[in-house]
Amino acid sequence: MAEESKTQLVVWAKDGTQVAYALADKPKVTFTVSDLVITTKGVEVNYSLDNMVRFTYETNETSYITNLQTDDTLFKLDGEYLLFPALKSNSTVSVFSIKGTMVFKRTLRENGEYAFPLSNLNAGVYIINVNGLSYKIMKK
C-alpha cells in the first residue's frame, strides 16, 4: 500500500493555487450545481466551479507518459454554447457521443474564439476533443 500513500488528489484553481489531498485519507469527491465538494476526515471543503481549472490524481512515482501536451485549451459554458476563447488556426474541435460516434468536427481556419452551439446536441454525455485534449461534458 506504499504507492497509495504517495498518490494525491490535486485541485487546481484559476489563480494558480493548488490543494492536495492524500488518497490514503480517502477523499470523497462530489459536485453540486456550482461547486466541487471534497470530504475527508469529517471535513467538507467546497470549491467554486467558476474558479477551478481542473482536478487531477498525481503520484510521486516516475511517469511513463511521454509527449504530454501542457498548453491547456480551456473552454467554458456560455449559456447555450461551449465557448473556446483562444484557439489557434488549424485547431480541430470534435464532438463524440459516449459510444464513440463522431457527432461534429470543425477545423478552424483562423486564430480566435469559437463557439459550439449546445442546441445541436441531444441530452446525454459527450466527449469534446480539441487538438488531442479530451473533455467529458453532460447535456441535460
Quick structural gist:
By secondary structure, the chain is mostly beta strands. 4% of the residues lie in helices and 54% in strands. Strands 10-9-12-13 form a four-stranded antiparallel sheet, with no helix packed on it. A three-stranded antiparallel sheet has the order 2-1-6. A three-stranded antiparallel sheet has the order 3-4-5, with no helix packed on it.
Could you describe the 3D structure shown?
The chain is mainly β and 140 residues long. The chain folds into two domains: 2-58, SH3 type barrels, CATH 2.30.30.100; 76-139, Immunoglobulin-like. It contains one helix and 13 strands; from the N terminus they run αβββββββββββββ. It has one helix at 2-6; strands at 8-13, 18-22, 28-31, 35-40, 43-48, 52-58, 76-78, 81-87, 92-97, 102-107, 112-117, 124-130, 133-139. It has a four-stranded antiparallel β-sheet, with no helix packed on it. The longest helix is centred in the N-terminal third of the chain and has 5 residues, at 2-6. The radius of gyration is 17 Å and the shape is elongated. The protein starts with a helix and ends with a strand. Mean pLDDT is 79; it is low at 1-5 and 62-70.
